[in-house]
């Protein structure tokens, strides 16, 4: 392909690994046309539909709402449907800290197991479900978590300690700690007091940088620590 033709294409280097046949991962390069493609997800869909139907990745809403297309691309975590393609080489990897099922698809089981341990639901004080307007406002910067796993993958502690709950679980936990309708705040805190709990967070703020919704898991972790102290 001559230079003029290359200038009309993006270079896409995609992490490939099929545990059923590969001994190790590798990167495969694809050239996709500039015209009509805007995001990392656009490129992946183009490759799957036109170049290599074996490429595995997740996507659903394509609007930054469902969180299923989270990946590591061009040096940072984010949603493939929101991350723009750049001139030159685009490098796409799966989420970190989680086992690869195939290519860009990872096994989210550990993420969900840790999320479920913090009891991510309201245990009512009584049958009345009223909530004050002010209390609802306190949750505005927490409630938009889409559970994409980007913060979990960016967190160094989730990689070092498999028992650590992870930033998303703590973010959601703090949402229920703040909810005036919930009756088990102390029980929730007891769940994360141990040696593998919230105090294992070293406040590196990688989770904040990774969050595609610009939420602040690190600050919510600090809130939980203060509640325990």
What's this, in brief?
By secondary structure, the chain is of the alpha+beta class.
Tell me the span between the first and last alpha carbons: 63 Å
Indicate the low-confidence ranges by residue numbers. Answer: none
Rg (C-alpha, Å): 20 Å
N-to-C SSE series? HEEHEEEEEHHHHHHHH
CATH names the topology of the largest domain as: Fumarate Reductase Iron-sulfur Protein, Chain B, domain 2
What is the percentage of strand-forming residues? 5-15%
Structural class: alpha+beta
The total tally of domains equals 2
Widest β-sheet, arrangement of strands: 2-1-5-3-4
Largest sheet: 5 strands, mixed
Fraction of residues in helix: 25-40%
Question: What is the CATH C level class of the largest domain, in words?
Answer: Mainly Alpha
pLDDT averaged residue by residue: 94
Please state the overall shape, judged from the principal axes of the Cα atoms: elongated
**Count of distinct strands:** 7
CATH hierarchy: architecture of the largest domain: Orthogonal Bundle
Number of helices: 10
């Amino acid at each position: 392909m001559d230079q003029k033709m290359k200038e009309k294409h993006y270079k896409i280097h995609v992490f490939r690994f099929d545990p059923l046949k590969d001994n190790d991962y590798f990167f495969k390069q694809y050239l996709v046309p500039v015209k009509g493609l805007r995001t990392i997800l656009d490129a992946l869909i183009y490759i799957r539909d036109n170049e290599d139907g074996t490429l595995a990745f997740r996507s659903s809403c394509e609007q930054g709402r469902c969180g299923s297309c989270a990946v590591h691309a061009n040096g940072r975590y984010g949603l493939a449907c929101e991350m723009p393609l750049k001139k030159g080489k685009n490098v796409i990897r799966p989420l970190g800290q989680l086992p690869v099922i195939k290519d860009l698809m990872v096994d989210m089981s550990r993420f969900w197991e840790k999320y479920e341990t913090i009891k991510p639901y309201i245990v009512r004080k009584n049958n009345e479900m009223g909530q004050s307007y002010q209390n609802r406002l306190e949750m505005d910067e927490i409630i938009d978590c889409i559970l994409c796993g980007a913060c979990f993958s960016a967190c160094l502690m989730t990689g070092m300690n498999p028992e650590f709950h992870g930033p998303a679980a703590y973010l959601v936990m703090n949402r229920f700690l703040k909810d005036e309708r919930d009756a088990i705040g102390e029980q929730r805190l007891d769940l994360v007091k141990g040696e593998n709990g919230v105090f294992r967070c070293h406040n590196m703020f990688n989770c904040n940088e990774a969050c595609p919704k610009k939420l602040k898991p690190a600050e919510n972790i600090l809130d939980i620590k203060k509640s325990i102290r």
